[in-house]
Amino acid sequence: MLRWILGGREAQGSLEKGSVLCIGEEQPKNWFTELQVLKGHFDIVRFLVQIDDFRCASAGDDGLVLVWNVETGERLQELRGHSQQITAINTFTCNDGDMSHISLITASSDRSLSLWDPDTGNRVQTISDLQSSVKCLLVLERQCVFVSGGGELCVWNKDFQLQCHRPNHSDTGITALIELPKNCIAAAMDKEIVIYRLTVSTDSSISVAEVRCLSDHQDRIRALINVNDGLFASGSHAGELILWDAIEWNITAYEHILWEESQACTQAEIRLTAPKPSEMSIQHLTTNGRHILAAVGSGLYVYSILTKAVVAYRKVAHDSNVLHTMLLSDSELMSCSEDGSVRMWEIQDLPLSAEPASSGFFGMWTFGRSNKPSAPPLKKVADVPNIRMLELTGDLIGHSGAVQMFVSFRENGLVTCSTDHLLILWKNGERQSQLRSLALFQKLEENEGL
Amino acid sequence: MISSPDVVAFTKEDEFGQADPDPWAVPEEFSVPLSPISDSNPWAKTSYAKFTKDFILISEFSEQVGPQPLLTIPEDPKVCGTFDLNYFSLRIMSVDYQASFVGHPPGSGYPRLSFVEDSRVVLGDSKEGAFAYVHHLTLYDLEARGFVRPFCMAYVSADERKIMLQFQELSLRFSQASECLKAGNRRAFAKELQRKLRDLEYTHSVLQREEGLQREAGTQRMYSAHAVEKANELANVEKSIYEHRDLLRQISSYNKRPRRDPQAVSCEKCINECLSECEQLIEKYAKLARPFSYTGKDETGQEGQKDGEEVAEEGEDVKRRPSYTPQLIKAKSAKCFDKRLKTLQELCDVTFYDATVTLLKETEKGFRGDLCYLHTRRLDKALRRKQRVTNFLFEEDLGDDDEEDERGILRPFCAVNHAVDNYTLLNPPHIVLGTEPLVLDALEPSDPCHPETSNNQDTEPGLVESHLDSSPSDQTLETQGSSEGNKGSFSSDKSGLDLAEKQLDLAKSEAPYPDSELTHEPDMERESSSEDMETTAGDEDGDGTPVSLLEVVSELEASREDQCEVITDGASDILIPLDSACCMAQEGFLYEASPAEITPCVGKSSNLQTPVVNQEPQALLPIQDDYTVGSPGSESPATGLELPVGLFGDAVSRTSVEEGSDCTMSASTGSDRGASPLGYGGVVTLRQRKKAGQGALKFVRQYPFAMQALWCLLSGRTLVVLGVDEGRVRRLVSALALFVPAPGRCGERVQAWLSCPFTLTDLQRWKLIGLQRVASPVGSSMLYSLSRYSRYISILDADHKTLRCPPYRGKLLANIADHRTYIRRGSTYFLHLQSTLCEMAAKAFLFTFTHHLHLPVSSTEGPEVVEGRRRCFLQEQLGLGEEDSQILLYLSQLITQHYLQPSTGGSAAATSFSFNYTTSVLYKI
């Protein structure tokens, strides 16, 4: 595409393999036509948390937590206190009567936990010298407590008093926590999911008991999410996606995503490079209650809960591992990846002449490789009759490092964070210009003319 | 650049004045009035002046040699060529402008300082072809006749009209300079008085001692001739002390008296400083100088003791005060022609003198160029000032000038403090008093450039010498000695004898009230008006206007009141009688309505459109309202008084012609830096921009896709100029920088040369980037960033002469990017460009501030309706296509952001960066 720039031959190769999938510069469906670069972090920004309709907090390896106004791009607060990288961040809403106040809980590698007031920037509570660093946080709003998971499982009340504490047997510790019905919580530990039950006794002391251990995964569990009231889902490093019954803790569906299977059979050459386990690792799961979107390696996989079947997939959606995904609606989704881009997808029905179209398309995204797959890459394409395709509708390019996470504020915009220490606020240019016009005429009125 | 000299020079007078009201005409305040001199052929004037450029001449009416030129600004002797400065000085100084009377007014006991206001006249010498605005002023000099030294500053030009039309500004500028000079002079004068008083006191004490000794030695022969002589001398000295103290009081009251001159505005700070200094001095000498009470004590017979003490004190004083030792004052005054008169520098405090010269230099710079040039520049500026909202887009920055102007008006000019503000020497040095010698000692070595001390040193050698002659040991013998080195006491020889006796009597009677002013002594007045002082009319209460003149003034005022609008609101008008032979004014009077005084009465400015000089009705052009008096529509009282000439702005543009292209980002040394005015070095000046016009013209003529490139810049798409050769890239960037909207004061939105890969932040910051093409790993990463951000940028390849950008098919830019253009000169193209860009900015302004194009008119309207209306406006009313609309939208966005900036606090929030997703195409040559 940009060969003309080079003025020579030397850099051609590097350029050509640069883009696996290119939508081009014309993106009529992409309404993010304005951006603001938010600077403030000094290291990788890993987490973004939405505080309310216009604020979000970002946290990163520099131990800083910054609170931003998404509407203006202003940095509202700078929460300093952690000496090492932040490992988990969550909002904590506690209903004290009518007043519900949002706080931020952060956990850091310096083995401390802190509670912050995002309005004032004050550190309200802090606990240091924990036995191990906390890797995940779960807030149980009904009980007004929160659970921290890491080397051990601890339950804290809103005043940061340890309610109960349960040491862990496995080496890896708890990597994910979700809340289940009937006062249960599920914790992902290596290959197992352990179900705990919280019991609040009459003197309001809380105890935790291990109820069940689900060890159906063959590999490390990378993602654990609630799907709806009756289901939760987990994804493993080996590409297993399991849907569980949230009450009975049974497997309701099992899907093993194996991208390379068919290709490996048909293409001998691929085998040399292809079967890296990360390529089928489920990095991230997200759901809207009807679909589950799994980020598998550098691909995307949409699974319908109703039909218990794959709806659409894209094996190579990004040039590199997908780190975070989101379902905007039943047909629109968004993903970000280590390649530094955010892509927006639409689930579209395949045109009737499915086969040639798809092969042609596939040919395009395997541009850099020496061979094109000559056959449909997955047998599932043939297996599943009503499969649809993921069409790229737009991409956001701005970060120069991996995009770690993003948070959508709907029409207010989208915030992305990245390893390049930056946050980018993507906005709808037209809407912004209208807002600015409004502000202009307001100011004009205030000033009573120019 | 709304107007250009080229255009104005050719305007015709046809429809001027009586045109029918044209419905499409621009509103009055935005219209460009025709040049006042358009009715005459600008080239017809044949100047037979012997100098080529205007200059400022400072002359003095020396009491010894008559009128003499002192210096010219600029100081280059080439400036005045064969022009006879001596002759011209004679002409300008021969105006008896102020009837400067000095000496003793009837009814006061002591010599009075005449507080003479400055006068401003326009003189012409048609034979020499020279015309001048002449500003007369007087400085005080203790040794001069009547303590005054008349000076004048003249702006000399071959163009009479220029002076007449610029009279107001010239007057303002020169008043400023004059005030500054006078302030410095008062300070120096007070210092001189102080020194003199110290000398007198010393002399007094010495005389007293002598007298005492004599009396002791020969009580029997009370009235020997010698004794009488001594007594007379003592009385003389005492009188002298009184007189000098009175002078000190007078000079300190200078600022308290009502100013007659409406243009004379002086700096509060300076006045206060001067006042406090003088008060200190007066206090000091009120305490020290108690010669009469001292004599009283002497008579009681404690002489011996006293003497001893005094000698001791004296000795100490001498020891502690190496810099200055009081000297004996001789009774006889020097002959007028014997003494060396102080130079202008000596008459004035160094700081003030330098500030004055700087001011005058700036004035000279500001008035360079012919009237036409000045006029158009002024128009341009006045119009631009009315479009503050959009000026930031393409116009050079006016901000500074405005600030300067406003400051100049709100805080009346104090050139010294302006100049000294960023100096450590913020507090002007205090006059060192005799009792604080240690302070002086401490000051002197540490602060060699201390104006005060340096001034002291300048004037001291003579004093020191004479002191050596009259060392304490033989001082008694020297009192009658030769008059060399005598700096002139003003008590005269002739009246010395009786005066001395009277003084003695008086001294005795007045002894209990040593501080009282002796003005009620009728005898004294006549006596003290000694022969060597020119006695003329008296002035009461320090009023600078002579009585005789006042009568004339009042008469004239009465007669004129019906003809011309007189500002009645307490503002004083001065009618200055002029020598009709040498004055340009036919009526013989200059009517001065000062801007400074008008300020409070802007409210009723409808009748204030007073011509600066009545003889020049052409000066009353509509646009001139802005310069002369406050127009009713002006937003602030200050606007009416804005100095139309941006002295400072122009100074910048002239002095910083050398490009400040210390580009910090540059990795290699540029082959020709001269081509690039951009960088972080400094403000991009008009001159540089004009120069860039040449480059832009070249670009337009050379590249067929210039239009597309310009469109990218104007629609806010970052343009990257890629090339191997730094010189070529820099040249291109500096040429294209003209098209970057809102480039920032110092061209912050332009990066002339970058040799590392850029990031998104850079794209957000810079709208035009010169990028080095390198064939190395660095180069490939740079190319990677180019391809990665390709959707945000357009790339102009300077080596292969290609441009990759979205297609542009509009017509808006055809006008400025026509590669078959007939324009050959860069500056012409620049003006052409400026007018096109200005038009765009005006459209964008209209678009931005038209409410219904952005917001729904009623609640029932949806955004689609507004959108449709906007599109309709752009396409049908402005006739813009899709791509051309983008330019306008971008400009409008910039205007909006700029307008909102102060309220939102642009510093906290990052600026946003807009873009759109369109395919690019590759243009080749």
UniProtKB/TrEMBL annotation, chain A:
<dbReference type="InterPro" id="IPR040102">
    <property type="entry name" value="WDR41"/>
</dbReference>
<dbReference type="InterPro" id="IPR001680">
    <property type="entry name" value="WD40_rpt"/>
</dbReference>
<protein>
    <recommendedName>
        <fullName>WD repeat domain 41</fullName>
    </recommendedName>
</protein>
<dbReference type="Pfam" id="PF25178">
    <property type="entry name" value="Beta-prop_WDR41"/>
</dbReference>
<dbReference type="GO" id="GO:0005765">
    <property type="term" value="C:lysosomal membrane"/>
</dbReference>
<dbReference type="InterPro" id="IPR020472">
    <property type="entry name" value="WD40_PAC1"/>
</dbReference>
<feature type="repeat" description="WD">
    <location>
        <begin position="104"/>
        <end position="126"/>
    </location>
</feature>
<dbReference type="InterPro" id="IPR036322">
    <property type="entry name" value="WD40_repeat_dom_sf"/>
</dbReference>
<dbReference type="InterPro" id="IPR015943">
    <property type="entry name" value="WD40/YVTN_repeat-like_dom_sf"/>
</dbReference>
<feature type="repeat" description="WD">
    <location>
        <begin position="57"/>
        <end position="78"/>
    </location>
</feature>
<dbReference type="GO" id="GO:0010506">
    <property type="term" value="P:regulation of autophagy"/>
</dbReference>
<dbReference type="InterPro" id="IPR019775">
    <property type="entry name" value="WD40_repeat_CS"/>
</dbReference>
<keyword id="KW-0677">Repeat</keyword>
<keyword id="KW-0853">WD repeat</keyword>
TrEMBL record, chain B:
<feature type="compositionally biased region" description="Acidic residues">
    <location>
        <begin position="530"/>
        <end position="543"/>
    </location>
</feature>
<dbReference type="Pfam" id="PF11704">
    <property type="entry name" value="Folliculin"/>
</dbReference>
<comment type="similarity">
    <text>Belongs to the SMCR8 family.</text>
</comment>
<feature type="region of interest" description="Disordered">
    <location>
        <begin position="443"/>
        <end position="495"/>
    </location>
</feature>
<protein>
    <recommendedName>
        <fullName>UDENN FLCN/SMCR8-type domain-containing protein</fullName>
    </recommendedName>
</protein>
<keyword id="KW-0072">Autophagy</keyword>
<feature type="domain" description="UDENN FLCN/SMCR8-type">
    <location>
        <begin position="46"/>
        <end position="896"/>
    </location>
</feature>
<dbReference type="InterPro" id="IPR037520">
    <property type="entry name" value="Folliculin/SMCR8_longin"/>
</dbReference>
<feature type="compositionally biased region" description="Polar residues">
    <location>
        <begin position="469"/>
        <end position="494"/>
    </location>
</feature>
<dbReference type="InterPro" id="IPR037521">
    <property type="entry name" value="FLCN/SMCR8_DENN"/>
</dbReference>
<keyword id="KW-0344">Guanine-nucleotide releasing factor</keyword>
<dbReference type="GO" id="GO:0005085">
    <property type="term" value="F:guanyl-nucleotide exchange factor activity"/>
</dbReference>
<keyword id="KW-0963">Cytoplasm</keyword>
<feature type="compositionally biased region" description="Basic and acidic residues">
    <location>
        <begin position="517"/>
        <end position="529"/>
    </location>
</feature>
<feature type="compositionally biased region" description="Basic and acidic residues">
    <location>
        <begin position="296"/>
        <end position="309"/>
    </location>
</feature>
<dbReference type="GO" id="GO:0005096">
    <property type="term" value="F:GTPase activator activity"/>
</dbReference>
<dbReference type="GO" id="GO:0032045">
    <property type="term" value="C:guanyl-nucleotide exchange factor complex"/>
</dbReference>
<feature type="region of interest" description="Disordered">
    <location>
        <begin position="296"/>
        <end position="324"/>
    </location>
</feature>
<dbReference type="GO" id="GO:0006914">
    <property type="term" value="P:autophagy"/>
</dbReference>
<dbReference type="GO" id="GO:0005737">
    <property type="term" value="C:cytoplasm"/>
</dbReference>
<feature type="region of interest" description="Disordered">
    <location>
        <begin position="509"/>
        <end position="546"/>
    </location>
</feature>
